[in-house]
Amino acid sequence: RLIDRDLEYVLKDIQIQLTAGVPLFDTFVNIARGEYGECSTISKGIIREVEAGKAMGDVLDDVGMWSPSTFLRKSLWQIVNALRSGSDVAEALQVISKEIRLDKENRIKSYSKELNLWGLIYMMIAVILPSMGVTLMVILSSFFGKGIITEERFWLILFFLIVFQVLFISFVNQKRPII
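^ thats the sequence. predicted structure below, dont judge the formating
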């Protein structure tokens, strides 16, 4: 996921540099110098192996084989295929970049739909249930003449609400997609 977060921007950068006439090796050098997180680290490894004497196509193929990111794997294999066939690398990268962007948009839409449900549950448990419960306790205490809402119950309800809100916020943060 750390790779996929910056990969769209890396592919755009590679595409722009290749269109401008920068050689592929120099493009990877520029990516390694850039601040693209995990993608820059992978580019440094590619540069190291190419400088050690391996062919660029073989290095990219090897990195694609062990990469945990499917989008990085597709991108590197597209570059390798374009290098071997002599076709334009920038066009292939443009298609993959668009696919990554659509995947991110789909994850955001899915998260927003899920968040709507969790927002409804939150409103029920943290807002409606306590206010109706306290109202019911006040009404019942007026019928029985004895205070149903004791200080212990008040602190217990307050503690439950605070714990629920902390747990709910951490749960929602864990569900958030990494983009």
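The mean pLDDT is 88.
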